[in-house]
Write a structure and sequence with these properties.
The chain is mostly beta strands. The protein has a single domain, classed as Hypothetical Protein Pfu-838710-001. Helix content is 14%, strand content 46%. The protein is built from three helices and ten strands. Strands 1, 2, 3, 4, 5, 6, 7, 8, 9 and 10 form a ten-stranded antiparallel beta sheet that branches. A hairpin with a 2-residue loop joins strand 3 and strand 4. The longest helix has 8 residues. The radius of gyration is 15 Å and the shape is globular.
């Protein structure tokens, strides 16, 4: 089960280069239900996501590079490219800050995952976060892959 909140970014935090960063490429084989392939640096995964907004089922399976490249040819919509910064917050959380590239630039989104719905509902975001778009399907990556920026 994945429990997460998603936000637009008002301003980028200082010193992004101090945080770990992954180069991500992902595409969608299906959007209802969501079936995604992802390359994150040198790791490859196939993901199924159930319906929902803040809370939804998520299953990840490992892929090898050959399988990823084969499935990438079958992607429906655009291939999303982004840099993901992993930023510690409030001693318990990791903010996943996504800076989109290519067709989706200059979109910037942050996601924070939680253990419970209560924890997600009580979350107070940092000042540099903008609008909470958790309950908008417009900012799901699967939607972005079909619609573009």
């Amino acid at each position: 089960m994945e429990i997460e909140r998603k936000y637009l970014i008002r301003e980028l935090p200082r010193d992004l280069s101090c945080y770990p960063c992954r180069q991500i490429e992902q595409g969608y084989l299906n959007t209802d239900p969501v079936v995604r392939i992802r390359k994150s640096d040198d790791r490859f995964t196939l993901t199924y996501k159930g319906s929902g907004l803040m809370v939804r089922e998520e299953y990840n399976l490992p892929l090898n590079e050959t399988a990823y490249l084969h499935l990438r040819e079958k992607v429906d919509g655009i291939l999303i490219k982004k840099r993901r910064y992993l930023i510690p917050y409030a001693e318990k959380y990791t903010i996943e800050l996504d800076l989109f590239e290519g067709d989706l630039a200059p979109l910037q989104l942050a996601e924070v995952e939680f253990e419970t719905e209560e924890e997600a509902n009580a979350f107070v975001p940092p000042d540099w976060f903008g609008e909470d778009v958790t309950f908008s399907t417009k900012y799901h990556n699967s939607t972005l892959s079909r619609a573009g920026a």
